[in-house]
Amino acid sequence: MKNQTGYFKTWKDSIGNKIFNIEFIDFSHRDINKNIHLKCKCICGNIFTRPFSLLNKKTSNNSCGCLSSLIYSNAGKTNRKFYVNNDKLIDNNETSYISGLLGSDGHYNKTKNSIELTLQYQDYKILEEISNYVEYSGKIFKNKDRNITRLVISDPSFCIFFKNRGIIPNKSKIYKVPDIYKNNSNYWRGMIDGDGCIHITKDNRLLLSLCGTYDVVYNFKLFCNSIVETNNKLIEHKDKDLFSFNISGEKAIKVLTLIYKDKNKLFLERKYNKYKRYL
To answer: Long-range CB contacts (< 8 A, 24+ apart) of 245-249?
Structure first.
């Protein structure tokens, strides 16, 4: 329960709760002055201890310290005034999808300390859905003449959350699927919406393919094999850092049926519509 001087009456009331980017996990120890220290988890994944008296103050006690460098490095950037709702940055269906789409088409701008996602103009609705989910206070760039739409977020919490899930600078040839997403259908839906293709062949078969780094394509094959057995091999492209994997027919339908099962509002309509038209 909150009171006038802090968030909680006692340290026991705080356990299991979260303030800003810090989750209170458990009692840690008492120091020589008998002050209680709590074990905490930051949004960046770091486990640390801090005095309960400091945690309980209604001040800008926002992280383990990881946000400071991003906040200071963003000083002077025009988009630093736009933020997301930190409570949305948890591992769930929505952030799994966003991670997949960022893993395929996202870019970490090291100069601006921002994460950027640029798509074709016709796909602007998915950027609106992502923006709505994280409650982003900024705007989405749209240019129909140039056929692009772009979402740029420099909120430090957002950048740290997805950076810890593989969205790093210059990731295009080294990106690896985070362990938490290897069997996550929402993540793979995001990947397919970015670097995948759903196509109906001339002989009326549904074809599903995905391009990416060896690690991405190999793990996608394992994901497909967990649904249907396939002996299809990875295809290595002329660019030796790029691979692809294809699956077709009833096997592709079974994989896509699972991928779209928990789609909610996060999916590219034009790719989903191809799948639905085939059924």
So the answer is: 245/209, 245/210, 245/217, 245/220, 245/221, 246/207, 246/208, 246/209, 247/207, 247/208, 247/209, 248/201, 248/205, 248/206, 248/207, 248/208, 249/205, 249/206
Both tokens of residue 26?
Answer: 């458990």
The predicted-structure confidence for 248-270, as pLDDT tens digits, reads as follows 999 999 999 999 998 889 999 99
Angle, helix 124-134 to helix 93-105, in steps of 10 degrees? 130
- Extract the tokens encoding 149: 């739409």
What's the pTM value of the predicted model, to 2 decimals? 0.75
- Cβ neighbours of 104 (radius 10 Å): 21
Measured CA to CA, the distance from residue 238 to residue 229 in angstroms comes to 28
The overall average pLDDT reported for the chain is 88
